[in-house]
Structure formats: C-alpha cells, structure tokens
Amino acid sequence: MDLAAVLTFEILNGVATLVLISVGLAIIFGMMRVINLAHGEFLMLGGYAAIVATNHGVNIWVAMLLVAPLVVGVIGVIAERLIIRVLYGRMIDTLLATWGLSLFFIGIVTTIFGNTVAGIGAPLGSLGVGRYTISLYRLVLIGIAAAILAVIFVALRRTRLGLIARGTMENPNMAAALGVSPPRVYATTFGVGAALTGLAGGLLAPISGVLPTVGAAYVAKAFITVISGGTAILAGTAAASSLFGSINQLLTYFTTPVIGEAGLLAAAILLLRALPHGITGKLFRGSL
Amino acid sequence: MLSVTDLHARYGRIPILNGIRLEVAAGEFVGVLGHNGMGKTTLLKALMGFVPAQRGRILFDGVDVTHEPPYARARRGLGYVPQGREIFPGLSVRDNLRMGFVGRGTEERVDAILQMFPRLIPLLDRRGGTLSGGEQQLLAIARCLAGHPKVILFDEPTEGIQPSIIEELVAVLRRLHRTEALTIVLVEQNLEFIAELAQRVLLIQKGAILRELEPEELRQAGVLSEFVGV
Known about the structure:
By secondary structure, chain A is mainly alpha-helical. Helices cover 76% and strands 3% of the residues of chain A.
C-alpha cells in the first residue's frame, strides 16, 4: 500500500515536471508555430532569476513564483520584438535565430555566474508514508502544474484575451480585419510562453540546481512532449506528459534513470510512428 | 466616406492596380465588376491594407489611412467580408461573432446581430468550420456587423453559395443598406446579384476603373460582352 502511494506520487511528479517544462513551449510552438530552440535557456534563466533573487533576500516563493516568470517574460517579449517578429513564417530562420539566442544566453550567463552549479534549498520538508518519505515541495509542484493547466484553460476558453489569441492563431489576417493587432497578440503570447517557462525554471531550481548549460537537459524532453501531444495545446501537453511521465518514472523506479529516459524516448518514437500528428491529432480532437 | 486617388498596388513585380480612382459617398451601395484577374479582390485588399499601396491615397471618413495597418482601418469602421468567408474554423459560431466586436472594442451585441440572422441561432455552439458555405457567408456578414462598421467591403459573397441562400443574402444586404444606412462596396461576378443591389456599378479592367454603369445597363448584352466577358 505504501509502495503504491509512493509510486503514484513518483508518477504524478514525473508528469508534473514534464507539464512544467513543456507548457511554455506548447504555447509558443502550438499557437505561433515558432520553434524556440532557446526554450531550455529560458528555463535556465528562470532558475538563475529565482536563485539570485533568493540570495538577495527575496522570499523563495516570491522568487520562484513571481520574479522568475517576470524576468523571463520580459526577456521573451524583448526577444520577440527584436528577433522573432521579423521571422514569422520562416521556420528555419526562426530555428537558427533562436539557436543563436540560446548560445548568447549560455555565453552571457557563463560569463556572469561561471560554469558551476548554483542552487537553493527546497522549501518545505518531507512527509512520511509508512516506511517511505515523500518531498512536500514536490507535492506542491504537482498542484502547481495542475493549476497552470487549469488557469490556461480558463484564460483561453473564458476570457476576451483568450478568444483574441485563439482567433489570431487560426487566421491572423482575418483577426486584423476585425480590428485585432496581430503583432501585439504575438508579443503577448510569446511573453506568456516565456514567462511560464521561466516559472518552470524557477520552480525546478531547488530540485535540479542550475548551470548555464542546464537547458539542454530540458529542451529535448519538452519538444518530444509538445510534438507528441499534437495540435491541442493543453490536452496534448497533458496527455503526452501523462504518458511519458508515467513511463519515465516507472522505469526509473524499477531500473535506472538512464533506462527511464531511454524508455521515454522509445515511447515517443513508437507513438509518433503510430500517430504522426500526435495524440490530439487522433484523440481529443477539437479540444484546446 | 471613402475616397481613393491614383491607387497603385502590385504583387511582387506584377502591377495589379494602376491608378484606381474611386469615390463612395456615405450610404451608397457601389458594385465593382470585372474579369477574373482584373484587380477586384486586390482593390478590396488594398482598401483594407492587406496589399500595400505603391502610390496614391486612400481617405476614409476624411482621414488618410493609406499607410495604416488593417487592424487600424478596421477600428476606424472599415468592415471586410473576404472572398472565401475566412471563418475561424476552430471557433464556435458564437465565438466567431464575438471576434467581430472584441477586436474593435465595441459592446457585445451578439443577440442583436442574431435577430438579423435567425438561421445562425441553432448553430451557435457548432464550430465555424462545420457550417455549409451559405451558413458561413451569413456568419461572415454577421461577424463583420458585430463591430459596427461604417463601410463594408464585400468580396464575391455569392461564390459557391446555393441559390436559396443567395436570395437570403440579397434580402440581408438590402436591409443593411436601407435600414442600417450602411455604405457598401460589393465586388461580384454574379450579374443578377449586383444589378439587384448596387446603385451604380464600376467596371474594372487592368487595374483601373474603366467605366461607370447604371445597374440597368448590366442587362445589355453588348456592354457585358465588351467589359465583363459574358
């Protein structure tokens, strides 16, 4: 019984981690079709923002939940205005530009902080489950991941801005003919996606630590999750995260983390072979 | 209301509009007729700002909008119902209608709009992409009206539409013009449709306004074969 509870927790934790690292990319790639190769570095910047703020006396929750997304959101808006904006519709050029951006961020952060791991202690303690203990902080992360999906759903489905974003992503010219400014919508969407990625970076900093090249550890998993999820941003991210998170955590628990990662990759290859348009290309069609 | 002087526009190196001159007074219903490829659709796109003007000037309600982006022109009251309808396929009919006013910041008036388009009421929760061509056309018009436009530019609204809906379109456009006092510019190839509605008809050829006709003249075979190719 205790083992089942701990395994369930581990699986939920794996799913939550994938949701956190993927949801910003899902918004930027899913809604704008921009392949942001600097996604991992946005995570890294969120981690550093949280660490620097905490080290300067800011409350750790404020640092993770406010400072990190704010800093990366602003960086995202600036990057969209200066670089991405002129490259819409040019996928390869965007890919190269964001790769360059990622190298720039790695270089500048290495110059400032050095190539060493920085970290902050995870808040909260642990909870005993029979013979086992689970991290309360990781439990909170599961709740935050679920809350992020819920908030995005409500924002897209129920708010005026969500409607404008959905309409603009479907047909920017028609949206413009109805008085919507697509450049402003793109900048906002990119900023929100970047902010969510920064939030994830801040939240994961106490668990994994941060170094300038940490983005590489996240970016592949994030892309695999988003592409396997398919066109529906939320349903796709949730479904792919659930599938891959479960496989990864179960294999990791019973074997090793390396086999867990390999299992995730193998599952993604098999899934995309069977469902080339991702999970929501076949299932949950028409969902957000 | 709408004044166009010496408007030139091109796609790449290919000139499409070559010195268009156009005056549309408030409350007027003007038709534009011409062969395929003569610049009818490009004229409307240039008026909306989707095709940049290389030369010339567009005044809307006394304001020079020649270099304004489409969304700014829409906010000034320029409405557009494009060829092919351009319904948002993944949005519900209700959300398609809401898109008509959220962008322009006008008040929500879905219910008022639906009174003019009762056929859309049972379809409100259906996705726009699942509607028939005729239903999509009605939705496109309703969505445009939601933003309180002063002028509406219609691009071939009868294209691919079944005859029963075309009759409904005639009634809707006539009501918009007479009751709502809207200014309308209609690009069409359906001669009966344009003759039924327009107060005057402009013939466009090689990107320039060649001649102005009374709607009755559209029924003269010689005029039509010379300028329209029918």
